[in-house]
Amino acid sequence: MTVLFFASYRERAGGPRRELELPAGARVSDLLRRLREEGLDLPESASVAVNRRYAAGDRELEEGDEVALVPPVAGG
Amino acid sequence: MAEPTAAAVGPEPLDPEELREAVASESSGAVVLFVGTVRRENRGREVESLSYEAYDAMAVEELERVCGEALERFEVERIAARHRTGRLRPGEASVAIAATGAHRGPTFDAARWVMEELKRRVPLWKKERYADGEERWLDGQAPTPRRET
Fold it and tell me: Considering the entire predicted model, what is its pTM?
């Protein structure tokens, strides 16, 4: 599964995307745990978007989903 | 303009007049146009430029959703919103929102609401570059999922 990173998270991740192998049935919370295990410094409040909508921690991830880590937003 | 809402995110310079024309309607008695610009100073430091980054595909979808929700919440006819990306200098417009409606009250309210929701939800980020060359991502708000509808 490809995970997209933006802005400050992209700088922390060292690039705009990362490939991850997650077991079938993995949820957004599992993805966050995995990224933290890999050493990525993510705040407790890290937001995740699945298919361009914000997703809760219990959202199940499916093959082909567009998954992105979204830092706190600051438009305007 | 055929559609009641129009949202765009991209590097093209903003033309507020174009946005105003996009929502023009003979049945409306009010047009509210908000333009946000880059400030020269922030927290006592001189800003040389502000670089905006977007999750483009999601930003335009989320902004479109915000505009659509505003139409349901307020008695207005049309709403258009644009946000610029890339490097902007002080004085340049970073965001513009236009709304039309029959009356000024709801039209002001709708434009204001779209701007506040944009700041809460639309995946955009900005990095300030100061006159001394230092750069910093500005603090933002952590978006949360909305209840499924």
Answer: 0.95
